[in-house]
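In the current project phase, the collection of sequences with tokenised folds has grown. A representative record is quoted in full directly below:
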Amino acid sequence: MNVALRVVDSITELRPHDAGCIAVSGSHGGISSAHYAQAARPLIAVFNDAGVGKDQAGLAALPWLQGHGIAACTVAHTSARIGEARSTLDEGLVSHCNALALALGLAPGQRCADFVRRLRTPAPVSSPPAPSQGDSHAS
């Protein structure tokens, strides 16, 4: 799949024309961030887990976006700087995923850059096997 990549320090920078993109942000994964991601409808939204926080507030976007049909994950706050999307992309390690992100092949422990590269690389097109020389078709 060849998908647009948006690298934004704040998820608030996404716009409706970003629908279907891979949105890598420096934003925390709290519920307020989820509302901005939901409005833009990316294929997947990547956040920082911000240390997870009280009552798992730093992950609240994941189940909320799952309920709205959007894949989402967080990177560990120990692996990427909060508020810096380039750090999320280049250094981030996935810490948590919703079920839609898991279905895209993401898993905790993966490097953000690796799964983004995989999602953006078109799948090889397989061609039908060539007929063997011994094949004959009666007409």
Remarks:
- The chain has one domain: 5-120.
- The radius of gyration is 19 Å.
- The chain has a mean pLDDT of 91.
